[in-house]
């Protein structure tokens, strides 16, 4: 059966981000039989989720694995619950509808040079897809690998640790929101996905 990795980038990011490119390079080199997918997400949360579900639904009889970073981790949590998939969530945002309120207004994506509007409606859309984390006796807890660094300057890493306390956690001292040394974690992610 065809195996696919869906890499979901964060807010104001793109498939050209360092983590996305390192992931693509690693999996193409070490697992060339795996299809690596990393779309440029729409700016509206509803449209982004529609994009992602359409990608999975188009090959619903195949195996899917999720990698999500920051806001992409929030989206990946939603998709992992919806489709019962394994997901690696990196420096993920727990309450983006609160965090991104300060970004309401005009934004520019430096990767794509696209100017767009973040709206109050986007915060409502984010709140609508919020998921609860697996409990101790929930087998779903084995579907998540959470990777955070304590030096994350954008998010409070402890929120992710608290929410996903019953899941597999990698908590590294220092680092930052980009997750320093991300490439060194790719073999651990491949092992978590049980690709071999």
Total number of beta strands:
8
CATH topology: Rossmann fold
CATH class, anyone?
Alpha Beta
- Described by the principal axes of the CA atoms, the overall outline is globular
Order of helices and strands: EHEHEHEHEEHEHEH
Our estimate of the beta-strand percent is 15-25%
Number of helices: 7
Name the CATH architecture: 3-Layer(aba) Sandwich
Structural class, by secondary structure, is alpha/beta
Q: What value does the average pLDDT take? A: 96
Q: How large, in whole angstroms, is the Cα Rg? A: 16 Å
Strands in their spatial order, largest beta sheet: 2-1-3-4-7-8
Distance between the termini: 13 Å
When the domains are counted, the total is: 1
Poorly predicted runs: none
Protein name: Esterase YqiA
Organism: Colwellia maritima
Pfam family, one: UPF0227
How would you summarize the topology of this molecule?
Blueprint: E1 3-8, H1 18-30, E2 35-37, H2 45-57, E3 63-69, H3 71-83, E4 86-90, H4 96-99, E5 105-109, E6 114-118, H5 120-128, E7 144-149, H6 157-163, E8 168-172, H7 186-193
Parallel strand pairs: 1-2, 1-3, 3-4, 4-7, 7-8
Antiparallel strand pairs: 5-6
